[in-house]
Design a protein that fits this description.
Blueprint: E1 13-19, H1 23-34, E2 41-47, H2 52-61, E3 66-69, H3 75-89, E4 94-98, E5 102-104, H4 108-116, E6 121-130, E7 137-139, E8 142-144, E9 149-151, E10 166-168, E11 175-179, H5 180-186, H6 198-208, E12 212-223, H7 235-252, H8 255-280, H9 284-297, H10 305-312
Length: about 325
């Protein structure tokens, strides 16, 4: 499927990366993917309205990538959906939606290919490890419901345990891997979310449909954990984290779970924003929180999501 390999090898992968002025990380992640020995793969880079120099950097360093330029910031969900539609049109068998701040193991694709040969598997969850502490586990499967997510293995040392493939009830957010037919059946990401919570929403959609997710420990990713601008503890998440958590609970929760989600937001999420505002000395956390609360009352009173993202992205405080 690429210039290096065998187009008839199956499953064939579509490897999707999203760029929003994060070209250095995008290229580094892509290079780790392309270093895999498994060659039935196409690389797609979707650009979300980056600066021209960012696009040129990607073009120079990834000349074989299929580059799609959206012209504006469509967010994580709509941005990746552009790439998903193209990959499905290209008849790939498996779609990998990758955060840019990752590197992957050299047998990442081989391990996934082995599991996807079981036709009942709808999606796969790689093992997530800490980029800066490479033996530290961040995710080894887990469980999601409309209120909470529970990660298995968090903080464990990968070499100290025997990890085996098993069914799980949680996608790995930084590296979501789907059988193409799953996306054809259920659709791509919910674009109402824009950014944040899309992994939980997609997990719940898959589980509600009675489909299976497979944890694949031999498929490893090392994650920088949101240091590229949108991770937890940033002003961006003061808006999208609070709003989208409540939206997913509203869509999938029972009446009791919806009420509990509101209580958890008032008791934990909102105080956390105030703590982060003080700790980081960045008032944009409060701006994001105010916008999120206002949006839940009347979305028309808040700027569009792309403008919110631009105002809150975690660069130096204004």
């Amino acid at each position: 499927m690429n210039e290096h390999g065998n187009a008839t090898e199956r499953p064939g992968f579509g490897l999707l990366l999203l760029n929003w002025n994060d070209h250095v990380n995008v290229v580094a992640c892509a290079e780790s993917l392309l270093a895999n020995d498994y060659r039935a793969a196409r690389l797609y880079v979707i650009d979300n309205g980056s600066r021209p120099e960012s696009v040129r950097f990607v073009q120079k360093h990834l000349p074989t990538a299929i580059l799609m330029e959206n012209g504006k910031n469509l967010g994580f969900c709509a941005g990746f959906n552009v790439g998903i539609r193209r990959a499905l049109a290209d008849d790939v068998d498996v779609v990998c939606v990758m955060n840019s701040d990752l590197r992957v193991g050299q047998d990442f694709l081989q391990a996934l290919a082995k599991e996807f040969r079981e036709t009942a598997i709808a999606a796969a969850a790689p093992m997530e490890l800490d980029y800066f502490e490479p033996e530290k586990v961040l995710f080894a499967g887990g469980r999601v419901d409309p209120l909470l997510n529970r990660r298995e293995g968090f903080g464990a040392i990968v070499s100290e345990r025997l990890w085996s493939p098993s069914d799980t009830s949680m996608l790995c957010g930084p590296a979501m891997v789907f059988r193409a037919d799953t996306l054809r059946a259920l659709g791509g990401f919910d674009e109402r979310l824009f950014f944040g919570g899309e992994d939980h929403e997609m997990t719940l959609r898959i589980l509600t449909a009675g489909m299976r997710i497979r944890f694949v420990p031999e498929a490893k990713v090392w994650h920088k954990r949101g240091l590229t601008g949108g991770g937890g503890g940033t002003p961006l998440m003061a808006f999208f984290g609070v709003r989208n958590y409540l939206l997913v609970a509203r869509w999938y929760g029972s009446p009791i779970q919806k009420l509990a989600a509101l209580g958890l937001t008032l008791a934990i999420r909102i105080p956390r924003v105030f703590v982060q505002t003080i700790a980081q000395r960045d008032i944009r956390h409060l701006r994001g929180l105010l916008w999120s609360v206002t949006w839940l009352v009347n979305p028309n009173l808040v700027p569009p999501d792309d403008e919110v993202a631009k105002a809150l992205v975690n660069t130096a405080p204004p």
